[in-house]
Amino acid sequence: MSSTPSISSTTAWPDLATDTQFRADLAQLLLPYINTCRWFAGKARQQTGCSVQTVHTLPLPDDSVAYLLILEATYADGIPESYQLPLAFLPEDSPALEAVPDKGRIGTATLAGQPGTLIDAIYDERFRTALFTAIYANQTIAQPEGTLAFHRGKGLADGDASLPSQVLPVDSSNSAMTFGGKYFLKLYRKLFNETNPEVEMVAFLTDESEFAHIPAFGGSLVWQRPETDITLGMVQRMVPNDKDSWAQTGDYLNDFLYAVPQRLFAIREDVFDKVELLGRRTGEMHCALYKPDRPNEPANPAFAPEPFTNEYRDFLIRRFEDLLDRRYALLIDNYTRLDAQAQRLAWVFMEAKEMIDAFVDDFRTRPLDSLRIRIHGDYHLGQVLATESDFVLIDFEGEPESSISERKIKHSPLKDVAGMIRSYHYAVSAKLFNSAETEGIDPDHLQRVSDRWFYLIRDTFLDAYLDTFGAPHPLFKNNNEINFLLLIYLLEKAVYELGYEISYRPSWVKIPLKGIIDVVREIEKIRLSDGDLIPDVPMLQTGLLQGKPS
Ligand SMILES: Nc1ncnc2c1ncn2[C@@H]1O[C@H](COP(=O)(O)OP(=O)(O)O)[C@@H](O)[C@H]1O
Ligand SMILES: O=P(O)(O)O[C@H]1O[C@H](CO)[C@@H](O[C@H]2O[C@H](CO)[C@@H](O)[C@H](O)[C@H]2O)[C@H](O)[C@H]1O
């Protein structure tokens, strides 16, 4: 007897959209299925159910249909979540079934006497073609609840209406398909009642800037409803790349690592060139996102620069205090699971609580004349594709833990800079402390080597980044503000990472803890310089930029 879950209905596949019994049966089958999917974020929560809320119908090229299901996952605590699942039905004898991997098979069904398999439709070429051609043709398809609107962007070239497609084998929080090796279509899985920030950002950079280091916007798929639009997918140009910058930096670190046991400190020149280039590209991205009012050309309000208002300061402080509370609690709960080195660092973090609280609170009143703009929001080495000689920046969805409205809040671009600096710190720490080559080396010595690499790379990145703007630039009032804001965002990011590592990679917890403690040391220096009433610490002499291995 087969253990594959199965359902049956007397209704034929193309007529099932409004069949309530089918929806209910399907929901039973979907709950175990979505728990096997990488994109379902509710696995660790106490689930109370999964229901099919809405069914959109998408005509397929062979006159059949696929359904875009909008699912609601509910939990014992907290608000429900919405997910998108495209559904297709392949009859038992369909040759297309062979190409469907196990992870795409939801269950079997007998519909109006026809046996077959229900699959995630991304694995059905007909579905992929239907999506792409609808985007190419700017189609709209009326649905019982709203409209499916397909928009074509500048990046989708004439003549590319129909291209062979594939599902990209990367397992991540969304699903990706490629078309003719030229286009990349991301189907969002977890849905939010708003336009996805990624579509806004990529469309803005493509349409309203000269910045060429993102994959150009090729279009989007939107569920239009009277209340709000919901973004279901986005097309971009496909970027030929070998790897992302996390992997590329890992390769550079492998070269570096071989010399460490011989007490040689060697970083190749081209590593600095690459770090400088990434600093420049990051600066250029932020220049492109800085679009103030111009004569006869008012700024687009969604992107117009804004000052550090009290409202923003309150928001950031509230969020930071809440994050700190949650992280201290998590650390206490998991303290005994940490290794000795992480426990030592955790103590320093806990003892610094008062100073950290005072530093965060200082943000409420400190004069700040720098400006805030829309930023990438989740910027790290894994979000940068390394092409043959340059970089392309991807994944503008924003901070994974934040709500969609929060992801659209403007910040100092130094928040992205802090994300990248943290990522370099991760890269060197993960490599040096987890490699066979360094086994047996005194950990204090390793820490000094790791710090030296990190400070050199950090300052190279930062110098190249700030040089891009030329001085002065309205985004950065002065060196004191740069220093202060960088520290705030570095601290926030490292505290956020602490939670991620405790939950997913406990042996890496010491990496963000070390990051937090480095910032705490800089806070001490800032407070000293404030006490001496130094009006403006000159560039390259600020505590952060001067940080030296202890
Ligand atoms: N335009 C593109 N061209 C080529 N590969 C891409 C492109 N965009 C993303 N990728 C690849 O797909 C992966 C997932 O993309 P990403 O935007 O990070 O999706 P997710 O939102 O699911 O995290 C990336 O790590 C990268 O390898
Ligand atoms: O890429 P996501 O948006 O899913 O972000 C989550 O996972 C990241 C890990 O891949 C995590 O990033 C942290 O680890 C990276 C190395 O693996 C490092 O480069 C980043 O600097 C560090 O923050 C991210 O925090 C998490 O939200």
Automatic annotation (TrEMBL):
NCBIfam families: TreS_Cterm (TIGR02457). GO terms for molecular function: ATP binding; transferase activity. Pfam families: Mak_N_cap. Residues 33-124 form the Maltokinase N-terminal cap domain. It comes from the Bacteria. Keywords: ATP-binding, Nucleotide-binding, Transferase. The keyword ATP-binding applies. It catalyses: D-maltose + ATP = alpha-maltose 1-phosphate + ADP + H(+). This is Maltokinase. Belongs to the aminoglycoside phosphotransferase family. Its EC number is 2.7.1.175.
